[in-house]
Design a protein that fits this description.
Largest sheet: 6 strands, mixed
Radius of gyration: 24 Å
CATH class of the largest domain: Alpha Beta
Distance between the termini: 25 Å
Strand content: 5-15%
Length: about 425
Amino acid sequence: MAPSGRKRRRLDPGTVQPPVAELTGECDIENIEEIKDALEGGRMADAASKIMENLQALENACLDIAVIGESGSGKSSFVNAIRGLGDEDDGSAPTGVVKTTVKPTPYLHPKHPKVTVWDLPGIGTPNFQSDTYLEQVNFSRYDFFILIASERFKANHAHLAKEIEKQGKRFYFVRSKVDADLEATKKRRPHAYNEEDILRQIRENCKACLEAEKVVSPCIFLLCNWELSKYDFVLLRETLEKELPSHKRHAFLLALPNVSLEILHKKKEALKKQIWKLATVSCFVAAVPIPGFSMACDVTILIKTLSEYHKSFGLDDYTLEKLAEKVGKPVEEIKGVIKSPLAREISKDVVLKMLSKAGDRALMMAKYYASIVPIFGSLAAGGISFGTTYHMLQSSLNEVADDAHNVLIKAFESDV
């Protein structure tokens, strides 16, 4: 949204903001001014190089999440839920057995393998005492720590949190199994039952336990591993979004399970910010005088990016089947609301057909961008390539995001 007081040229329906205008808005690239200056000054090679560095950094960003909790606290179920898995799915952390984690155990995200959730041994066990715990579990490996308790937070939790903070990393207290507490209270005192009051009491009790151990202003997130969209998961997600570095924030957001319409919207906005970068690279490649090189590059960019959209929005057969199983509906019923052909197949042939249909639209957009950014006017082929890639990615993202939205509504029959 433009700042108040600033006037922007009104675009025809279906057109998009020019890339230089986008650079004036929110963007995660630290050297944004260098890219902007290079584009406006016609130094396309410099701009493309900086953009490629940023795209590569996003693609290579690893995120390591450490989860700590005592046996029975719901730690393994949380490890599974944050990765979009049920406790019985392939690759899930084992649950339902009494066991002690004896060493840090990594669990890769099934769709985003650079995101790893680590199940760490419980602090205070014979082999992991609080004084040496962080060194034993290789503290520096993790980006942030989730400290889980199913009843109350103990002195060990507080001590560990203070040590983590002392060494300059983030930690978050998660009180799990809130749904079980609510259900138990409802059975015991059905007439006096008030969910809001009970949640407040749980939060205050957790806070009091931590403050008694000298933890200053602890922030506690109440969660149910079976229904992440409830209680404080949105608040936890928002907190992590604010506090993680930009590239790791991007990886975290795309790896989140699609449990709410808000998460789908956040993913769409994050992916939308990358479109102009990919289109600019396409523009630069189009100016290289090698027959067939530009088309091959565009096809590669489109297949890779469209596959990322498909994966991030959970439109693959496996994810849809698991969703149908969870809500007790036939998978065909859920798939029935999907309209985009990209949900069925993303291949070279499909992309080439899409490119062949984009000619007129690309030419119109090339002329528009040439009037805004001089470099596109001097590179006719580059301008057309930019317009084609931008239009195809934006329209495809809209289609896939709409499908994911409709799938979630159909699955839960509500605006989750």
